[in-house]
Amino acid sequence: MATPLNAPSAQQTPTPEPNASAAPEPDTSAPPEPNTRTAAGPGVWRRGRGIAGLALVAALVMLGHAAIPNQVGHLGSLVETFLPWTGLAVPLLLLCALVRRSATAAVAVVLPALIWCSLFGGMLLDKRADGGDLTVVTHNVDEHNPHPARTARALAASGADVLALEELGAATAEYERALADTYPYHTVRGTVGLWSRYPVDASRTVDIAPWPRALRAVVRTPKGPVNVFVAHLLSVRFSPVSGFTAAARDAAAHRLSAALRAEPRQRTVLMGDLNGTLDDRALSAVTSPLRSAQSEAGAGFGLTWPASFPVARIDHILVRGVEPRSSWTLPATDSDHLPVAARLKL
């Protein structure tokens, strides 16, 4: 019997119809897509190790500044003079970490941030309080001050009971005339002077340099006598060759320290331009036995020099046997330093 031409053969397998709902077979010839989650995870920790290293260096400088040697170029004193500014490394390095998308660097920046806050965080608080018996002001008036009389009038208007001036120079007579009505008592030794609303006696030069740059006097306040020292330590210079030249200043600081230690009266106030900050180890002989009015009763860092853009507090009011109640900087005069004031409880 003949088989129809269109009938399927017994040995032929019918071709299945395609299933539209079935998933397509993967194309094994195409390259696999990268696993971005796996690649990005370890990358944020591997990147930014250089930034993390810089953060560690900043932390070591903050924490170990006292170990920086001072023998060559007074490098330790130079770093300590501007030590609060090391905090600028924190936001700068954090920004670099964010740009680099580095978790390692971001975590490393936390270390110098914590150290800076432990060192200087308290300075950001406002510790000023009411009260006090004596208002004192100190100001390096700048021997090249173009308007000494105007500077004197501004200082007299501050309400100070006792006024200490440094770097008087050739304009001393102008200051004496401008301050005479407000301060009936005064004494001048070389380039430093003391003006007071209350009687002043026992004035003498404190020998800290080859020429008079410091004095000691007793101010007879209504609350009793107070020893007042006015000092202007020798200037420092910085050059790439010699570094931070501070040997003459340091020697003057040790002489001033000896005079303070020899002072029998407990109530003592030291005012003046020390040409250094409280962090500078070279001045510790002077600063460590005394209390800083700004540190204990001020607000902020109280930077004083240069007046146009202060970067360091080198003008100080330091006390012993009296209590600082408040401390602040006064508006700029025609000097390159800002005046500083404090209210003291005797």
Radius of gyration equals 35 Å
N-to-C series of helices and strands: HHHHHEHEHEEEEEEEHEHEHEEE
> Which secondary-structure class do the elements indicate?
alpha+beta
On the 0 to 100 scale, the average pLDDT is 90
Give the low-pLDDT segments: 1-11, 36-40
How far the N terminus sits from the C terminus, by CA atoms, comes to 137 Å
| Largest pleated sheet | 6 strands, mixed
Molecular shape:
elongated
General description of the model:
There is one protein chain. This protein has 346 residues and is α+β, with helices and mostly antiparallel strands. The protein is built from 10 helices and 14 strands. It has helices at 36-46, 49-63, 75-81, 89-100, 103-120, 148-156, 172-179, 247-261, 284-287, 293-297; strands spanning 134-140, 162-166, 185-189, 192-196, 200-205, 214-221, 224-232, 237-239, 243-245, 268-273, 291-292, 315-320, 323-329, 340-345. A 6-stranded mixed sheet has the order 3-4-2-1-14-13.
What's the layout of helices and strands?
Layout: H1 36-46, H2 49-63, H3 75-81, H4 89-100, H5 103-120, E1 134-140, H6 148-156, E2 162-166, H7 172-179, E3 185-189, E4 192-196, E5 200-205, E6 214-221, E7 224-232, E8 237-239, E9 243-245, H8 247-261, E10 268-273, H9 284-287, E11 291-292, H10 293-297, E12 315-320, E13 323-329, E14 340-345
Parallel strand pairs: 1-2, 7-10
Antiparallel strand pairs: 1-14, 2-4, 3-4, 5-6, 6-7, 8-9, 10-12, 11-12, 13-14
